[in-house]
Amino acid sequence: MANFDWIILSLYLFIIAWSGTKLARHQTNTENYFIGGRSIPWWAVGFSFFGTSISTATFIALPGQAYGGDWRPHLANLMLPILVVFIALVVIPIYRKQIKMSAYEFLENRFGYGIRFYASLFYLITRLFRSGFVLFLMGKAIGAMTEWDPYWIILISGLIALVYTIVGGLEAVIWTDVLQSVTLFGGGLICLWILWFGPDGGGQLLQIAHDSDKFRLADWSLNLGEMSILVTILYGLVGGTDSYVVHQDCVQKYLASKTTKQAQKAIWLGAIGSILTWNVFMLIGSLLYSYYSLHPNEIPREFATSETQVFPYFVATHLPKGATGFILAGMCAAAMSSLDTMINGMSMVTVRDLFLHFRPQTSDQIQLKLGRIFSLGWGLLGIAVGLLLLMGVEQAMQFSFTVFSILGGGLLGVFLLAFFIPKANTFGVYIGLGFGILISVWALLDEIFSNIDPSLKMGLSNKLIENLSFPFHPWTTIFFSNLASFFVGWAASILLSKMIKKHTVNLT
């Protein structure tokens, strides 16, 4: 790295830390700390949606997938505009009318605290894993570019995001996300410009990628056991809806906007920005395949065969002075914009959904102090997960999709029952959720048996393993688990309605 690169990266990190801590004086109560005082402009919230959805996986896993494979997994991302229609017209108005801060309040009002408790734990577990995962990808990428120790990269960048999140709350998260969104999108455009207007020319690179079938967007079969068009569409629609309905960090931003209409505009701005950026980075990966096909001697074999390191290697070896520092800043932005949102969300859930249930008389000032304490705890745990993941995950994009699909657990089905089925009741929902969890566990066991060391299978019957095999692609897990949760819960509620003297509160 040239001195100019160091200046750009250091200046970026300083501005992020300064702007985040500058908002500390506004954090005088939990409404300001957790939902920004319900007064943040819609465009800033929209940029925050955009920045959070563009994690380190965008910088690393998307180009890696397009370079080593094709665009088929990306079809799931392209379902975002379809599901945003549902989020904007149905979900946002319900949440803004029915809850104070937490999406899981709505579940308690419909079905009791047990469901709220489960949803809170589910959110904390999945977000903890994701926070570590985005840090892991950033550590691997920047380590490949600079030869710095990835452990120190994860630790330092994670601590910077942790500090301004603890001090500035959701307001700091959203306003720093605005800057981070611009930085990471600009970094992608710089790389695309250099590839497109390089000596080989964009047209030639496009032709090579096209001839190699790198732009294949769908497998047109309907086979649920393969990554077919049906599987990717189902995963994109259900998995995306799950993220925007179930995960508290999104719900906080719906509430941070001044009005329902502004929250709807914000989600559309975030979706449009996300789609544009995802397409840019997928195109970069396809062009990288073409470039290194023409110039195989310009990349060592260990980088050429690594999906998570090929793009960082290109950045480190082909970008002019100053541009490398900007790309590094973009990679830091991608990780930090996801991490800060999740830390604040996990802290809010811990305080509002768990702690207050047992200590309901706790004053608002004590809740604010606890919010900062829990932010610190969850942030440190996320950094620890990122360090543990450095053991090595190459196919980062598919790995993340598979894990989050398995962890779906049928909770979206519970929310849909709460939204649309007036007669859904607590007993029926518990039964439906149980079926959804069973499907997730079934798929998880199949993943374990598929990847277990052969020497450890000696005590297991091959026939037993075959009978336990999940017959569908892992990405379908989130669809089937939520399908079972919804319809079994609905049917069980009808069958058990006579056992319940009074229906739960009708908030559909």
Task: Describe the 3D structure.
The protein has 22 helices and no strands. Helices cover 75% and strands 0% of the residues. By secondary structure, the chain is mostly helical. The longest helix has 47 residues, at 150-196. It is globular.
Largest sheet entry: none
SSE pattern, N- to C-terminal: HHHHHHHHHHHHHHHHHHHHHH
Question: What percentage of the residues does DSSP assign to strands (E)?
Answer: under 5%
Average pLDDT score: 85
Shape: globular
Cα gyration radius (Å): 23 Å
- The secondary-structure class comes to mainly alpha
Task: Give the N-to-C terminal Cα separation.
Answer: 57 Å
Bin the helical content: over 70%
CATH topology of the largest domain: Sodium/glucose cotransporter
Number of discrete domains? 2
How would you briefly describe this protein structure?
This protein has 508 residues and is an all-alpha fold. The chain is 75% helix and 0% strand.
List the SSEs and their pairings.
Elements: H1 3-22, H2 30-35, H3 42-53, H4 56-68, H5 74-77, H6 80-98, H7 103-111, H8 113-146, H9 150-196, H10 202-211, H11 229-246, H12 248-256, H13 260-294, H14 301-304, H15 310-318, H16 323-358, H17 364-388, H18 396-406, H19 411-420, H20 426-451, H21 462-468, H22 477-495
Which properties best describe this structure?
22 helices; 2 domains; 508 residues; Sodium/glucose cotransporter; mainly alpha
